[in-house]
Amino acid sequence: MIVFENVSKFYGEILGVNRINLSISRGITSLVGPNGSGKTTLMNLMCGLLRPTQGSINVLGLTPDQPEKLFHKLGYCSQFDSFPKGITGRDFIQSFLEISGYVRKEAINLTNRALERVNLVEAAKRKVESYSKGMRQRIRLAQAIAHNPEVIILDEPLNGLDPMARAEVIALFRQLSAEGMYLILSSHILHEVDMMSDRVVLINNGYIVADGDTRGVRSEMQEHPLQILIRCDRPSLLAAKVFEQEDIVEARLHKDRRGLFVKTVNPDNFYLFFNKVVLEENLQVESIHPVDDDLDAIYQYLIGSEGS
Hints:
The protein is α/β, with parallel strands linked by helices and 308 residues long. It has helices at residues 39-47, 67-73, 89-99, 104-117, 133-145, 163-178, 190-196, 214-219, 235-242, 267-281, 295-307; strands at 2-11, 14-24, 27-32, 54-59, 74-77, 151-155, 182-186, 199-204, 207-212, 226-232, 248-253, 259-264, 285-290. Strands 5-6-7-3-8-9 form a 6-stranded mixed sheet, sandwiched between helices.
């Protein structure tokens, strides 16, 4: 496990993170929060790039005060571009491995494997300065995974990637997770985080405000109504029926008057009620689905709650 015990980090009088208690297991864990929320601070503490003001951090039995040993277990891809002038993609990875103690033959083999995994074999002989933003992102990812670490920490790894490259990188993350690795990543692309993560940690102002899978986080917020869009042949009739239910917060017609938005604090009861109405009134239903049951809605709700 990766364990934070009562960890705080202050930059002078400025709060980085405060009283963090967190255990991370294998799989994909996503840190979600706005700029300044504490995501990068948490990652840098995990890597040993920062020291906590208080508390302790343990990464698979090692502390960040053991950088040489920690290196072999951990790969880190920051959100910032920084490359030696004139270096090629291949040399960027291979020189990193050789400086870290790998013999040349092993470094070449590991470099080839990493380039294959991020689909940059052909581009590797070119200078990094000629790469697009997405290619630079992928070459940094290749460096982070080249030495086959057990833990991979990725700060905004989807930034700058086009849709095809994003799909390839997400597939790679899933593959690495299936191989038993720990992946900790941050992102603002909430629907993709929602799609690929085993676990989500929502952070705001240096505090963890929610932790779990998306539905698990949502189940902790019973007071937060779920909005459902129903498209049917008689939404006005359905609206009249809906208001008979105690758990309904709001019901309003869609602007095309072919749909009904319903907000309820008890979705399970509503779905049972809706099935009954459909049978009794012979409603012709085109579709029914939640329209905000995702990380964006959860996060915006939680941040709103934290600020109130």
